[in-house]
Amino acid sequence: MNPMLQTLYQEVILDHGKQPRNFRKLEENCIHQDAYNPLCGDKLVLYLNVKDGRIEDISFEGQGCAISMASASIMTEELKGKTLVEANAIYKQFTENITGHAGESDMGKLSVLSGVKAFPARVKCATLAWHAFEHAAGGETKASVTTE
Ligand code: ZN
């Protein structure tokens, strides 16, 4: 990756990691899903409010490393207002890209996280919130999603 681009990506991750967006609890009509990454100790709760097949609101709370928090923060920004069909397509594209099962594709803002691919141990940090979303959106809420 171009070093200037890499620096920019790191800044975005640090910014979201320090000041996560949509970092709050949703009170009404929401599904919530706990998620835990034992490898790193990242923990979060994802809150999802879906109305007529569209994500009305999505938020999270938790604590963990900058990558896990930034990924959750960027995810909530990307998925809010999307239909579940659109959101699932983004989920699939993101997880395939970050785990190296897809070729390079333009993921817009999500591409800031693709640098994580070079560090397999951190992939679980980056995908934690997304797995929580997958379960919450699929209606298969588990007691807790772990990345193992
Ligand atoms: Zn982590």
Brief synopsis:
With 148 residues, this protein is α+β, with helices and mostly antiparallel strands.
Index terms:
4 helices; four-stranded mixed sheet; 4 strands; 43% helix; alpha+beta; binds zinc ion; 148 residues
How would you characterize the overall build of this protein?
With 148 residues, the chain is α+β, with helices and mostly antiparallel strands. It contains four helices and four strands; from the N terminus they run H-E-E-E-H-H-H-E. Strands 3-2-1-4 form a four-stranded mixed sheet, with helices on one face. It starts with a helix and ends with a strand. Bound molecules: zinc ion. Zinc ion is lined by residues 37, 40, 42, 64-65, 67-68, 125.
Describe how the helices and strands are arranged.
Blueprint: H1 3-18, E1 31-37, E2 42-51, E3 54-63, H2 66-79, H3 84-98, H4 120-138, E4 145-146
Parallel strand pairs: 1-4
Antiparallel strand pairs: 1-2, 2-3
Helix pairs in contact: 1-2, 2-4, 3-4
This protein binds zinc ion.
